[in-house]
């Protein structure tokens, strides 16, 4: 059944429902059933003569029929009732464009974009050669609320102020931090290092870079060491990189800012770079701060393999922001990726991600920890950790999680059929584990080549050692 038919059926049950009538009118407009559309909008106006959306609907019908003056009259009427109505301005922009009055078309387009931040009309933008973002930036944008935990004044702020003299010091972009934890925020403690099995070296590295300097500032000063910098963590999928990044929030006694990539990307030209800049600005203004980019490869791709100039600009911007870290060392940037070879080599220069830590599949001790963590909230009969450690050699943490999930599912299904709830049998866990192939193998096959070709500078020597290949410096 078509959606139009579905709305018709619904209208039979509820013929005077304005929302349904509007929905129907718009669906008819899309399919150019102009008479039916007009009928629906007029019915809404009979019920509510001042209904702006129905007026706009009729104005669109006029416009599509080629009656531009009829459309303009209706749209102006809406603006008299609601001066900031973005849809009315958009329609007027189209009307003026069809009459070759470009200046007024742009004027109304800008008013629409400024009135409603979500306005997006690619066809009109294309014809005007102007995006809604351009339009918004030509007007004073609303001020960004102060990020939580911004110090009132002090050296952190001064260090951040005026550091960047580039084009991004104009009105703030749309970006807002999604995950920002100030030091005492109770939510941040839901995951800590105790929830992450293994990775002791990495945990210690993070302590050295950000936790100890805050605990022992005088000691650090005496040895001429400072906080912050850039750490890249890389390794096969499912080995706990994302989990560790979450746990960092529960460990560090300072501000924590984690950025989802969906928060940064912006379809408008220059918007993504602007958002990225805004993120670094927020981190600097809230120093000391840990700034986290999970799956960083999608932001920091090798420029040689990127076709679109937009992506290259983004990488340049990222490099530029990382350079700013040298002068403001109280921000620790942590990036995580399972495709380290995709990263632009420029990120590996000193002062940027100058330290790479390989997150390997968990060794025996780490697997034992992960097994205990996985078992802690499940009924299991006679858990035999050493036997499971042996049966899961080469497994990632995610593989182990899968084994427990699969065994639980099978036990549950048996319980439903027999009517008796029983604990997960240890034998079943072993059987499931022995039948599973570790998911990390393909990653290592690929990494073996990349470790030398993509990083002849020895950046990936840790993984080469793990693979028993000579490190690039030794060769
Ligand atoms: N070291 C670990 N300790 C405890 N649990 C782990 C560990 N490693 C992985 N896990 C489990 O596996 C799941 C997947 O891990 P996570 O998402 O952190 O992997 P990842 O390394 O980020 O993978 P990807 O490269 O695909 O992003 C976690 O939610 C966790 O349950
Ligand atoms: Mg991850």
What's the gist of this structure?
With 475 residues, this protein is an alpha/beta fold. It has helices at 3-13, 18-30, 34-47, 52-64, 68-81, 86-98, 102-115, 122-128, 132-137, 155-160, 200-215, 217-222, 241-251, 261-264, 271-285, 309-327, 364-375, 385-391, 397-418, 426-434, 441-453, 461-466; strands at residues 179-181, 229-234, 255-259, 289-293, 331-337, 355-358, 380-381, 424-425.
Written description of the protein model:
With 475 residues, this protein is α/β, with parallel strands linked by helices. It has three domains: 3-137, Tetratricopeptide repeat domain (Serine Threonine Protein Phosphatase 5, Tetratricopeptide repeat, Alpha Horseshoe), CATH 1.25.40.10; 177-358, Rossmann fold (3-Layer(aba) Sandwich), CATH 3.40.50.300; 364-434, Helicase, Ruva Protein, domain 3 (Orthogonal Bundle). The protein contains 22 helices and eight strands. The protein has helices at 3-13, 18-30, 34-47, 52-64, 68-81, 86-98, 102-115, 122-128, 132-137, 155-160, 200-215, 217-222, 241-251, 261-264, 271-285, 309-327, 364-375, 385-391, 397-418, 426-434, 441-453, 461-466, and strands spanning 179-181, 229-234, 255-259, 289-293, 331-337, 355-358, 380-381, 424-425. The strands form two sheets. Strands 1-3-4-5-2-6 form a six-stranded mixed sheet, sandwiched between helices. It has a two-stranded parallel sheet with strand order 7-8. Helix 16 links the parallel strand 4 and strand 5 (331-337). Helix 1 runs antiparallel to helix 2 (18-30), helix 2 runs parallel beside helix 4 and helix 15 (271-285) packs parallel to helix 16. The longest helix has 22 residues, at 397-418. The radius of gyration is 29 Å and the shape is globular. The N and C termini lie far apart (68 Å). Mean pLDDT is 81; it is low at 140-175 and 470-475. Magnesium ion binds at residues 241-242, 294. Adenosine-5'-triphosphate is lined by residues 196-199, 237-243, 338, 362, 366, 370, 373, 397-398, 401.
């Amino acid at each position: 059944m078509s959606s139009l038919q579905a709305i018709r059926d619904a209208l039979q049950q509820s013929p005077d429902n304005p929302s349904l009538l509007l929905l129907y009118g718009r669906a008819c407009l899309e399919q150019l059933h102009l008479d039916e559309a007009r009928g629906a909008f007029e019915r809404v106006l009979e019920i509510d003569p001042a209904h702006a959306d129905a007026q706009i609907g009729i104005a669109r019908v006029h416009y599509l029929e080629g009656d531009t003056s009829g459309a303009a009259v209706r749209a102006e009427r809406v603006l008299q009732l609601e001066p900031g109505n973005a849809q009315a301005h958009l329609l007027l922009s189209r009307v003026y464009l069809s009459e070759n009055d470009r200046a007024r078309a742009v004027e109304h387009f800008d008013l629409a974009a400024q009135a409603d931040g979500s306005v997006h009309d690619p066809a009109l933008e294309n014809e005007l050669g102007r995006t809604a973002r351009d339009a918004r930036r030509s007007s004073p944008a609303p001020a960004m609320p102060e990020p939580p935990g911004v110090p009132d004044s002090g050296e952190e702020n001064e260090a951040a102020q005026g550091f960047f003299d580039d084009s991004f010091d104009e009105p703030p972009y749309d970006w807002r931090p999604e995950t920002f934890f100030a030091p005492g925020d109770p939510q941040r403690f839901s995951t800590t290092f105790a929830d992450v099995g293994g990775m002791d070296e990495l945990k210690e590295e993070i302590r050295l870079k950000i936790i100890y300097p805050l605990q022992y500032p005088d000691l650090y000063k005496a040895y001429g060491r400072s906080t912050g910098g850039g750490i890249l963590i890389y390794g096969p999928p499912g080995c706990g990189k994302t989990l560790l990044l979450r746990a960092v929030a529960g460990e560090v006694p300072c501000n924590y800012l984690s950025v989802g990539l969906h928060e940064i990307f912006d379809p408008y030209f220059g918007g993504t770079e602007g958002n990225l800049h805004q993120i670094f600005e927020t981190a600097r203004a809230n120093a000391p701060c840990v700034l986290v980019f999970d799956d960083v490869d999608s932001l920091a791709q090798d420029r040689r393999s990127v076709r679109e100039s937009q992506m290259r600009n983004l990488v340049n911007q990222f490099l530029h922001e990382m350079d700013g870290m040298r002068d403001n060392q109280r921000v620790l940037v942590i990036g995580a990726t399972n495709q380290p070879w995709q990263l632009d080599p420029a990120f590996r220069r000193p002062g940027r991600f100058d330290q790479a830590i390989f997150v390997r599949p968990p060794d025996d001790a780490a697997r034992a920890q992960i097994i205990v963590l996985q078992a802690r909230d499940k009924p299991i009969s006679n858990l035999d950790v050493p036997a499971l450690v042996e049966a899961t050699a080469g497994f990632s943490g995610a593989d182990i999680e899968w084994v427990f999930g699969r065994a639980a599912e099978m036990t549950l299904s048996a319980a439903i059929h027999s009517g008796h709830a029983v604990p997960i049998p240890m034998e079943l866990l072993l059987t499931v584990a022995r039948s599973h192939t570790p998911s990390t193998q393909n990653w290592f096959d690929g990494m073996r080549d990349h470790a030398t070709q993509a990083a002849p500078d020895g950046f990936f020597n840790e993984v080469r050692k793990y693979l028993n290949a000579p490190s690039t410096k030794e060769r």
